[in-house]
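Researcher: Quick test of sequence recovery. Tokens follow.
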């Protein structure tokens, strides 16, 4: 269980909620309300006050890399640091079934990142995140560049991972998507998080 207690950071007055294993919560709010800042604070990428716990263990008692392996933040515009796709994975062959489930070709690993479409990169970064075996996935508009079929595939893959215990906090500006993927909604407005 991910527990957020009185979390405050730049642009966020207070946030408190519990995200159980296997659950998906939609995080909604107007553009500029701080949704990305909240995800980054939970992932320990930006300074924040308050407490964040994973299965009762405070984030403060875990080193940063271990926390970010367990609680993975998927940015709306993720970074790439090597030329080819497979260079971003410790074991591309084991990640390939997830890539294929998202409609990506088996030879995708040999492709240069610079030649990929935004939608291909968006799907691959999800595969990269899931390949790390996180307990919690923090998603920032993960389907913004996807067509309907690719979006549906991505939602199905995440749903399958939820069935294995993955907890998901999903930022989406699409109310229909939030209704499809999430069991609960959180709203960030005026710097405060409330039940939606």
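Model:
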């Amino acid at each position: 269980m991910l527990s957020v207690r009185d979390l405050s950071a730049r642009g966020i007055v207070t946030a408190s909620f519990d995200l159980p294993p296997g659950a998906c919560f939609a995080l909604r709010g107007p553009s500029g309300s701080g949704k990305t800042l909240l995800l980054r604070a939970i992932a320990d990428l930006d300074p924040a006050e308050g407490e964040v716990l994973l299965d009762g263990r405070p984030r403060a008692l875990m080193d940063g890399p271990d926390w970010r392996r367990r609680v993975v933040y998927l940015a709306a515009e993720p970074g790439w640091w090597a030329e080819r796709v497979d260079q971003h994975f410790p074991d591309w062959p084991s990640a390939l079934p997830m890539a294929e489930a998202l409609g990506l070709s088996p030879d995708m690993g040999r492709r240069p990142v610079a030649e990929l479409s935004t939608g291909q990169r968006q799907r691959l970064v999800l595969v990269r995140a899931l390949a790390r075996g996180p307990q919690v996935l923090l998603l920032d508009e993960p389907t913004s560049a996807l067509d309907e079929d690719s979006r549906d595939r991505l939602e199905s893959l995440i749903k399958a991972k939820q069935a294995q215990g993955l907890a998901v906090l999903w930022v989406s500006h699409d109310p229909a998507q939030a209704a499809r993927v999430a069991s609960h909604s959180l709203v960030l407005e005026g710097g405060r998080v409330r039940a939606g």
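The chain is about 30% helix and 25% strand.
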